[in-house]
Amino acid sequence: MPTSTASARYDGFGKDGKGAISTRSGVLSDQPYGFGTRFEGKPGTNPEELIAAAHAACFTMATSFALDRAGHKDGTLETTCKVTLDQQDGGFAVTKSALSLSANIPGIDQAEFERIADEAKANCPISKLLSCEITLEKTLSA
């Protein structure tokens, strides 16, 4: 199976530090992030925005494939995702990923639509990621 990679760099520490995120594909290349982009609305991105984009995309694709398997061959799906970051236990935690799906699918009834969407939500890889094992490889250079 394919492996996707991304990298992040942070120069300086705390609020004064500045980061940059890049992806192997080049879709993100030294995209700025830091305290200002995460908490003050400054230009750039932040981890929660990237999780929201990934969750919306993954869920929408999973729904599309499930609809195809169920015999639906045409339509449109649009999903937004809002990821919530809250203060918790003296730090921060992602506490919610709220998906909102709007669909136009000829010939589907409400019950089938809801069943397929619920299954896609439970089974898309990013939904599963939000409670996955996390590994960490560490290297410190002088």
Automatic annotation (TrEMBL):
A Gene Ontology molecular function term of the record: peroxidase activity
Q: Which domain of life is it from?
A: Bacteria
Biological-process GO terms, alphabetical = response to oxidative stress
**What protein name is recorded for this chain?**
OsmC family protein
Biological source species: Novosphingobium olei
